[in-house]
Every structure is written in C-alpha cells, then in structure tokens.
Amino acid sequence: MKNTTIQRYINPMTDFGFKKIFGEKDIMIAFLTDLLNPESPIEDIEFLDKDLVAESFEMRGVIYDLRCRTADGAEFIVEMQNRYQSNFNDRIVFYLSRSFSTQERKGDHDWNYELCPVYGIFFLNFRMNGLQQRARRTIQLQVVETGEVFSTKLKAFTFELADFKGKPLEYPKEKLDYWFYNLANMETMTTNLPFQNEQPIFNKIGSIAELANMTAEEISKYHVNIDTVRTARCVMRYEREEGRAEGRAEGMAEGIEIGLNRGRKEERIGIARELKRLMVPISQIVLATGLSEEEISKL
C-alpha cells in the first residue's frame, strides 16, 4: 500500500532547514547555553557575514554553516555536514585557525596576543574515521604527558546524529541529547516535537519548522534546496558506480588483485564505507574492495 503520510516538518539537514532553525537568535542562544553551560547567561549574539571563502557549488549540497559572536567576543562556527569529506579533521583545524588569525590587531604594537575563544560545532550525518565511535566529542588542546588543558580558547564539538536516528523516545538521557534526537528525526515526525517540558524552545522550533506555517516563497526555496541535495547525492552515487565499473574492467584485463592495487586506498575506503552503510556483509565488502575485515570494521 502506498504511503500517504504528509510531511509535517522541514528537513533540518538541508541548507534551508538548518539556517531556518539556527538562524534564529533565541534558538541559537538556547543551544549554545545547553552546550556550554556558561557561568553567566548568553545575553545576545551577532550573526557574522560570510566573509570567508565559500564552499564550492558541489560541496554546497552537503555542507551548511553559520557564524556568530557573543557579546564577550567568543566566535562560533556552527556547521551541518551530510557527507564525509577527505581530511575532515584537518579542515576543522583550518577553519578554527583561520578565525583566530582574524583577531590579529595589525598596526597595534601594544597587542599582547590575548585571544577571544573560537568554538567549532559540527553536526555530522556520518561517522568520523580513525576515532572511537561516539555520539559526542569535545576536542581541545592539552598537554600529552599530563592531560592538562593547554588552552580553553579553542574547542571543537562533533555530534554524530546517526546515533539518534530512528531511536525510541526513551533513548535521549541528557539535555543536549534532546536537540540531537529532534534534529535527526524531525523530517519524519508527525506529532509535536518532544521534550518541550525539558527545553521550551522546541515549541518555537516546531512552529517555524512546520511546512504549513511557511510562505509559498519559503516552500519554493526549500524544494529547490532539496533538489540540490538530491543532485549532489546522485553525482556522488554516479561517481562511485563509475569507479566500480572501471575497477571491474581493470580486473578483467589484468586480474582483480592488480586492479585493486592500482586503485587509491582512499577510494576503496570510501566504497567500503558506503557499502557498510548499506548493510552489505563484510565478507562481500572484502571481496569488492580488497580491504581486510579489520580495516572495514574500523570504518
């Protein structure tokens, strides 16, 4: 039987949906407050113009970001990313370092290098590579030998939303978990957003995210954005299929082992990651990529 359920809320993992929600000052302040638990309330924030280099068109289908600054000068880069990107860890370091570099007071000989904090907040619709699987991470500079915090001025937070998708309402246990659960499941919800007693701002989020409350122009922009996301996914899917076809052709001509050895390991890892996401048995992924079971299990 055909599913006739009508979508109630926008997808917050699109550029339009992400900025529709977190582009509201009181929503952003509520989230930052739950994240940082500051000693004094965050009174106000200022959204910054995107004066940094924008992502390429191809990447705009998968990366969305907002930048804001609090009254005390702390800067936040808040980003939603739907697909894994090579050197993602390095990109986090680069983004935060670039924000620090803008604080230099050129021509001020009395500047003593005091910096305002820069925080990176990354909502991820994928699993990070090379790290233990965790729904949440806090990353900062520390002394390796003692574990002492070297500086509190630079922090990055990563949140893997896949941990919350499709889980029962009893799954979230902490205040931040309510945010991640709603973001991960909003597109398929048909009732009011849960956890409004724990965080009243969810009432407003539900109201502005509800398709029935949007103008015709907003609906049009949203659907254009959805098409952009789908196009980006189709392009990536085609490139993966093309890579598989080339690999099969090489295997037929020179043998499967030679063909796999010629392929870049990064490409084989990307194919394995996608096959694993699609629940393909590990034994078949081993045959398709040439990677070991141990390498695949760590993805």
What does this protein structure show overall?
With 299 residues, the protein is an alpha/beta fold. 43% of the residues lie in helices and 15% in strands. The protein has eleven helices and six strands. The protein has helices at 15-22, 25-36, 57-60, 88-101, 175-185, 201-209, 216-254, 256-262, 265-277, 282-289, 293-297, and strands at 45-47, 63-70, 75-81, 118-124, 136-142, 149-160. It has a six-stranded mixed sheet, sandwiched between helices. Residues 50-62 have low confidence and may be disordered.
What fraction, in percent, of the residue positions are helical? 40-55%
What composes the largest sheet? 6 strands, mixed
Q: Could you give the order of strands across the largest sheet?
A: 1-2-3-4-6-5
How much of the residues is beta strand, in percent? 5-15%
Question: Which structural class do the helices and strands define?
Answer: alpha/beta
The number of helical segments is: 11
> How far do the termini sit from each other?
36 Å
Oligomer: single chain
Number of strands: 6
Low-confidence stretches: 50-62
Shape category: globular
Rg (CA only): 22 Å
Mean of residue pLDDT values: 82
Order of helices and strands: HHEHEEHEEEHHHHHHH
